[in-house]
Structure formats: structure tokens, C-alpha cells
Predict the 3D structure of the following.
Amino acid sequence: MDQHGGLKAGHEKNARQTDRAVAALIKDLKQRGMLESTLILWAGEFGRTPHSPGTDGRDHHPEGFSVFLAGGGVKGGTVHGATDEFGVNAVESVTDMHDLHATVLHLAGLDHEKLTFRQAGRDYRLTDVSGRVVKAILA
């Protein structure tokens, strides 16, 4: 459900469908000793405002969003970054998608900067030509 409207009912339904399943996955991986070597990344398509003019939904907003990482070398219980008082723009420890991708690649044992190739006189890589590993979240 995309929650442009019906926010309370839609989120309650989505939470019932996913919360226990995600918790069970993490618990199972931990019990089997596999959580340390398995990276879980949980994210939406992009940020959402906590409001939408004229409805009880939310609007799209790519300037402040949440991503959940667990296991696989991530420091448990860590919160990294914050949005403004309206929940719209990232304002603290701003981390963009290139940084997230660089960090995920690092956790998978890959140096994103070594994945650079030249095409038509320009350098390219999975993290474009930017991206930094977010060391504050590493275990």
C-alpha cells in the first residue's frame, strides 16, 4: 500500500504483515549464529514526508529517509543521522544513497573505489564517483 491516503489503516496493516516476519528472520539468524555474516537491509523506495496536504497520507520526499540495517558487520542499536523538525530534510550526519551503497559494498568485502571503470573519458562505478563508507555504523 502506497499511503498517499489512509495512513493509519494502511500502516497498521503493513506493520501486521511485516513486523513479526522481520523479527522472526533476525531471531532465527541470530539463533543459528548467522546474523554476524548476513546483512539485512530494509528500506522503502525513498523518503516520505510525515504529512500530505489535504489528506491523511504522505508525499514523496527524497531528502530525508530511513533505512534499517542489521547483522553483517553493522553495530546493533545504532541510530545514524536525523531529519529536521518536520521530518523532511536530512540535517544531521547526512548520508546519501552513494554512501549507503559504498557501506553495503564494504560490508560485503568490496572496496567501491576499486570498482571504477572508464567509459568515454569518464570514470564510473556503482557509487558514481562519490560515496563514502559510513564507519560510524560499523561493528
Remarks:
- The helical segments are 7-31, 97-107.
